[in-house]
Amino acid sequence: MTDVLVRREQAADVVAVRAVVAAAFASPDTPDLAPVEVGLLDRLRADDAWIPALSLVAVDPSGDRVVPPGQRVVGHVVCTRAGLDDRAVLGLGPLAVRPDRQRRGVGTALMYAVLAAAEARGEPLVGLLGDPAYYRRFGFKPASLYGIVPPDPGWGAAFQVRLLSPERPVPGTFGYARPFRDL
User: Fold this and answer.
1) pTM, rounded to two decimals
2) Segments of the chain with pLDDT less than 50
3) Among 71, 72, 141, 78, which residue's Cα sits nearest to residue 110?
4) Is the peptide bond before 31 cis (omega within 30 degrees of 0)?
């Protein structure tokens, strides 16, 4: 496992975060095109759904101390405001780790940190679209187990939720922040 320091994103990190997201989601078929996740992140930052306390970076603490802090960013995760019908919940994503640091625990550290931060804020649940085999380790379960309908019914078991409160959620339809819906 890699040693990283997970902290809130700072203004000086924004450019480095964009670079990490671009590298993490780059397509070998279209290397000159910015991945959709980069534009999504930019639009999320400008949206009312953005929650600064839930935008976290993983920083390499062993980096050269002369290098500006934003250049040591090796990963990023964000949760933004979402809805479960008319109830406020969170949507997670994107989660990105620089390719040379993937499969070394950076994503795991970011996930545990953002879920702990969300729970400390009293948030009821987090929803995401992702690989069930990966996210299961963080307590995510298919949303359908709770009667939660994804924005796209075709997502099936890939749309998952993690409960952050002991109360079972009221069934309903999950809605991501507008920038997700505009994709």
Assistant:
1) 0.92
2) none
3) 78
4) no
